[in-house]
Amino acid sequence: MDRFLLMNCFARVVETGSFSAVARELRTSQPSVSRYVAVLEEHLGTRLLHRSTRKLTLTPEGARYYGEVRDILDAVAGAECNARGIDKPKGLLRLACPTSLGRVHLLPCVQALLERYPELEVDLQISDRYVDLVEEGLDLAIRIGHLADSSLRARTIGVSERVCVASPDYLARNGIPHHPKELENHNCVTYMLSAEGDHWPFRDGEVAVNGRFRVNTTDGIFSAAAGGLGIGYGPLWLFEDALSKHQLQLVLEDYVVASSPINVIYSAKRLVPRRAIVFMDFIADEFGRISAMQDGALERLQNLIGHRSKSDAKRNKSIVTRGRMSRT
Question: In the chain, what are the domains?
Fold first, then answer.
């Protein structure tokens, strides 16, 4: 049987998670697709997929084989496009992104991406858990922080400055901390999936914090801080809009640590397909337009908030003065 057909069939089953979906793509029957995968497993002498009535799961051998097969299929597709003089990406792009970054900034870009490249498909996994690109068959992942794994490569698409915030109501009830050590007297919303956890880094070192509320997403930190549950710590781009509207207030901004890079990462050992290169170019351009993801974002926001605060105070004073004059 055609080995290329078997490999393509297996790859698409992994990517769609469905024998039926691949059958529709190949205009054949679901039993035929199942048989193709079985023939491939028999040829290789190993099981590639665990099958159940609810889902398909890659075996460790299947995960490794999928990565290698995906490289082969991408190379063939690239060679065919080059031969035809076509430079448009096609196929399935599989990527992962942290929850808040994905919801707030990446998802709004997806429609424009798909409209620009009509033959491109996107499988986006939004999660704050750590993902292994090779084992999970991902082309790319967006991560915040410096790259430590030498088997990966990174392209920086922005920066992330971390700040402390709280609602005006919380600060009115509990006071404003003027030094990180004063956080021990406050309810701090801690992020359970962070390596830092209950130790927040500041310019002069880490500070142990505690509080009555813990959460496993940065979205939760935002909601808790905005709701007055305590002081939150997270990326400026998450809080920027609420800060500019005075729904949240910066605290301890003179003690922030240096910004961290926002990277798109990919495996150094695998072929980087055209669809991944196109996505990196696209998202670098989109994120480049977001002020909160550029160097100096905190200083610019401070200036903006300060200017608005002065304008509001001046306007309120004028209103009060006019009110007094009208009564005389």
Answer: 1-85 (1.10.10.10), 88-158+261-293 (3.40.190.10), 162-258 (3.40.190.10)
Output the CA angle 263-264-268, nearest 5 degrees: 110
Residues for the chain: how many in total?
A: 328
Reduced 3-state DSSP string for 108-168: HHHHHHHHHCCCEEEEEEECCCCCCCCCCCCCEEEEECCCCCCCEEEEEEEEECEEEEECH
Q: What is d(CA 183, CA 199) in angstroms, rounded to the nearest whole number?
A: 11
Q: What is the pLDDT at residue 83?
A: 67
pLDDT digits (tens, 9 = 90+) for 190-218: 987 766 678 899 998 999 999 899 998 88
The pLDDT, as a whole number, for residue 228 is: 95
Backbone dihedral angles phi then psi of residue 128, each to the nearest 5 degrees = -95, 0
Full DSSP string of 238-263: HHHHHHHTTSSEEESGGGPPPPEEEE
Looking at the whole model, is its pTM more than 0.90? Answer: no
